[in-house]
Amino acid sequence: MSSGDETRKLQHQKMSSDLDTLQLPISGHREKLINAVKKYPILIVTGETGSGKTTQLPQYLHQAGFAKHGIIGVTQPRRVAAITVAQRVSEEMNCQLGRGVGYQVRFDDCTSEDTVIKYMTDGCLMREILADSKLSRYSVVILDEAHERSLNTDILFGLLKQFFHRKCHGKRKATLKVVVMSATLEEKKLSEFFDSCPVYVIPGRTYPVSTVFCNLIGPEDKESSAYVKDVVKVVIDLHTNEPAGDILVFLTGQIEIEKACDLLYQKAEAIDYNYDMQDRSLEGLLILPLYGSMPTEQQRKIFQPAPPGLRKCVVATNIAATSLTVNGIRYVVDSGFVKQLSYNSRVSMHILEVVPISKSEALQRAGRAGRTSSGKCFCIYSKEFWKKCMPEFTVPEIRRTSLTSVILTLKCLEIHDVIRFPYVDKPEERFILEALKQLYQCDAIDRRGQVTTLGKLMIEFPLPPSLTRALIKAASFGHESILLPLAAMLSVENVFIRPGHPDKQQAAILKHQELATKVGSSNDFATLLHIFEECKASVSPSSWCRDYFIHWRALKSAFSVETQLQDILTRLKNNKDFPVEQFSGSRSELLRRCLCSGYFMNVARRSAGKVFCTMDGHGSVVHIHPSSTLFEQEFQLDWIIFHEVIVTSKVYVRIVCPIRYEWVKDLLPKLHEIDVYDLSNVARHEMAEEEVVKLEIPERKDSADSQEGAWGKLQKRNDDRSIM
Ligand code: CDP
Ligand code: MG
């Protein structure tokens, strides 16, 4: 923890900083905001994107002395935002990143003893709550980007609400301050959720934005994948016909963005500037990608003004909608699509897919063009598409995604009644039950819904339960070295480079094939493992990556992730409860068997031709993705497991390996032995018990932390609810 001296030093440095933040809409509200935070335990602050909430408010609170009793923590739903903003604020405060101002995201902790303002992902704060439910290190917790309604932020809302409702924590409740920050979207709903807590509105300045529908995508193109080309066409038209002003393009993900940037580069090169350009003051286009896993040096350029004569064109994911404000944008080009995790009823699975954005999201995107002057938004879609295909509002993540990790977290926090947890928007009960079922199948909870010893080990890993289960299996055999690199490779961005240029594309494909064949039998998991090992063992890992068209940056992160997972595992292996098993067999079998123990819900069997059928009870039809080494080898296969599902024109499974039926034979019944009805009985059972508690044990027992088990906890929960 920093001393008072450190606090003063930072304050002084702030004054000598040359970064101009006085012009931001928030700057006139400093004193009032500080007083409001002093006065209320929970405060909501809203204001237009770019008004200075994220970068300034933590500094104001720091200057007002809030950091004397603990850290000022700020959560972000996106890792890039956490890193970029921390960087910016450390510059504004003139201190080294990681000292006074730091950040922490999954697998990357850039904080120190001196850190007083800490930006982090909401997932990181969730993990901290597991170790310290009172968040005693913090004086202020700021939940930023609340309107995004990310899964973890939503759960944090519920946990903090419960925290303030508890009868215990008396002293702590008086000192912890919570600020919820959001764009002007959800403040009413959130205020109601937090017992009508006050809302501080920072008046914004916005300019009118006119919308142009380019009609390249209509209602029939809902699953179109041509939007990258359409977007490029619109950008080039705009660049040649519209007066100076920077462009912000909204696309769906890293691969699409890289493709668009390649195409834009080619097209922009080909423009004959003497004839085509309307605006003679412009000579060219400065093309800058912006997506989640980008290197930080590159991100800086986004915020710097373009050199004279150049028009800046930032090609971004949704991150630029509210998380990061790029100044000087006059034109927005909206693809109308977003990549999001959602439940796909066609395959009864949660998958990452490209879907039309909501109308409120479209408005938010367009608004980015009207920050400093009036602007224009070019939508590649038609008005019809807007009307028919776009929902009014974005569905909060909690209502469309897999809940396994959060439900396990809640269970570990001894919140047993996950159905009646205070959700801002309650997820559908079947999703909660589905998560309980999967946790049961992974042996993380027992039939009564209680966390098992294994579940307590699993929660320590910042990985999805399936991967954690496989890792613990390998470790129980004493062979974690086979799963650790793989878990790391599956946790970083896509490692394969797909060059834009056709000649290079072919060369890359050949090199990737070479890597796959080195493994011997076809198995995408083994290929990833091989890439990790061979790269690490090479004399120059970065040139090895260049030769094989592999992202060196991704590999570098994988190396670091592996070390961190290894540290967690080493710590847990000292635990007497850590399982120990014997295995004798080949390395290839060992790998696949461990994978089976985590991924057995992702088992499919070839039914006919190239068609596979999942074994999870839904019997969905899936195909092997063309990027897999098993693609076009389907006829030789019988049973497979897969890492993930992608839906485009077909339902594809990606990262696949062949397995033998006998390896999953004993596990598969688990998929069916407990079905949703059974678990809903468990849930109903829980509720029935609570009723009993209410009726039969009238006197209150303050024994939530004692060994009484579920009864004591249920009693306590009822108390909590009675004052809600
Ligand atoms: O959180 P909110 O949207 O209200 O605003 P902010 O993120 O605090 O941004 C305030 C200003 O700082 C904007 O004008 C941003 O463009 C600028 N900023 C920047 O120049 N570089 C960064 N890395 C982050 C913010
Ligand atoms: Mg912000």
UniProtKB/TrEMBL annotation:
<feature type="region of interest" description="Disordered">
    <location>
        <begin position="698"/>
        <end position="720"/>
    </location>
</feature>
<dbReference type="InterPro" id="IPR007502">
    <property type="entry name" value="Helicase-assoc_dom"/>
</dbReference>
<dbReference type="GO" id="GO:0005524">
    <property type="term" value="F:ATP binding"/>
</dbReference>
<dbReference type="InterPro" id="IPR011545">
    <property type="entry name" value="DEAD/DEAH_box_helicase_dom"/>
</dbReference>
<dbReference type="InterPro" id="IPR014001">
    <property type="entry name" value="Helicase_ATP-bd"/>
</dbReference>
<dbReference type="InterPro" id="IPR001650">
    <property type="entry name" value="Helicase_C-like"/>
</dbReference>
<dbReference type="Pfam" id="PF04408">
    <property type="entry name" value="WHD_HA2"/>
</dbReference>
<dbReference type="Pfam" id="PF07717">
    <property type="entry name" value="OB_NTP_bind"/>
</dbReference>
<dbReference type="InterPro" id="IPR027417">
    <property type="entry name" value="P-loop_NTPase"/>
</dbReference>
<dbReference type="Pfam" id="PF21010">
    <property type="entry name" value="HA2_C"/>
</dbReference>
<keyword id="KW-0507">mRNA processing</keyword>
<comment type="similarity">
    <text>Belongs to the DEAD box helicase family. DEAH subfamily.</text>
</comment>
<feature type="domain" description="Helicase ATP-binding">
    <location>
        <begin position="34"/>
        <end position="203"/>
    </location>
</feature>
<dbReference type="InterPro" id="IPR002464">
    <property type="entry name" value="DNA/RNA_helicase_DEAH_CS"/>
</dbReference>
<dbReference type="Pfam" id="PF00270">
    <property type="entry name" value="DEAD"/>
</dbReference>
<feature type="domain" description="Helicase C-terminal">
    <location>
        <begin position="230"/>
        <end position="414"/>
    </location>
</feature>
<keyword id="KW-0378">Hydrolase</keyword>
<dbReference type="InterPro" id="IPR011709">
    <property type="entry name" value="DEAD-box_helicase_OB_fold"/>
</dbReference>
<dbReference type="Pfam" id="PF00271">
    <property type="entry name" value="Helicase_C"/>
</dbReference>
<protein>
    <recommendedName>
        <fullName>RNA helicase</fullName>
        <ecNumber>3.6.4.13</ecNumber>
    </recommendedName>
</protein>
<dbReference type="GO" id="GO:0006397">
    <property type="term" value="P:mRNA processing"/>
</dbReference>
<dbReference type="InterPro" id="IPR048333">
    <property type="entry name" value="HA2_WH"/>
</dbReference>
<dbReference type="GO" id="GO:0016787">
    <property type="term" value="F:hydrolase activity"/>
</dbReference>
<dbReference type="GO" id="GO:0034458">
    <property type="term" value="F:3'-5' RNA helicase activity"/>
</dbReference>
<keyword id="KW-0067">ATP-binding</keyword>
<keyword id="KW-0547">Nucleotide-binding</keyword>
<dbReference type="GO" id="GO:0003723">
    <property type="term" value="F:RNA binding"/>
</dbReference>
<keyword id="KW-0347">Helicase</keyword>
